[in-house]
Amino acid sequence: FKRSGGASAHFVVETDGEITQMVSTGEVAWHAGFGVYHGRPKVNGFSIGIETVDRQHQRFLELLNEYYEQVIRHGFGGVSPEMLGQLKEYADTHFRDEEALMTSRGCPGLEAHRSQHRYFQSLLVDLENGRLQGHGATVEGMLAFLRDWFLNHILEVDRRIADFLWHGTAGPGR
Fold it and tell me: Could you give the 3-state DSSP secondary structure of residue 40?
């Protein structure tokens, strides 16, 4: 599961919460290979090392970018409502799975984590209803805010899940 063997993860977490360590936490697991994500280098830095969660993060960002590209190409009114529905449904699924993982492993901070998820879901509803105040007052501004919020959530909040699974703590100072 090292770089020469293709994509890997530090841990594989089964749906029942069983954990298998694939790579030492002191090594880099090449989850996404080498690459750049929409101009952002070192995409592996956005991986938390839990394969199922990382795959879901990647798919959600792909959906968000597809939506953004449709808005740029066709304007907000030219984007099918089904596309936003897919975004909302995927966020719901991902958040539910992530919260179930936290529950099954006894991760601390579940309620705060859940609250952040609900906030993000409310932003998607705002986008759907055209309530864009405070986010650049444009669809593009709202989508950029959603993307940045999601990436920050991965780097700061979701990393705590991995820290807890790896080290039995919620991360340094958390």
Answer: strand
Residue 170 · residue 160 · CB < 8 Å: yes
Q: Give one DSSP letter per residue of 13-33, joined into a string.
A: E-TTS-EEE-S-TTS---SS-
Smallest CA-to-CA distance from 49 within 165, 152, 156 is with: 165
Closest to 56 (Cα-Cα) out of 94, 105, 20, 7: 94
pTM above 0.85, yes or no: no
Residue 146 and residue 124 in contact, taking contact as beta carbons nearer than 8 Å: yes
Model pLDDT for residues 67-119, shown as the tens digit of each residue: 888 888 887 777 778 888 898 999 999 999 999 999 998 999 999 999 999 99
Measured between alpha carbons, how far is 159 from 164 in angstroms, rounded to an integer?
A: 9
CA distance to 1, 16, 110, per residue, from 168 (Å): 24, 19, 15
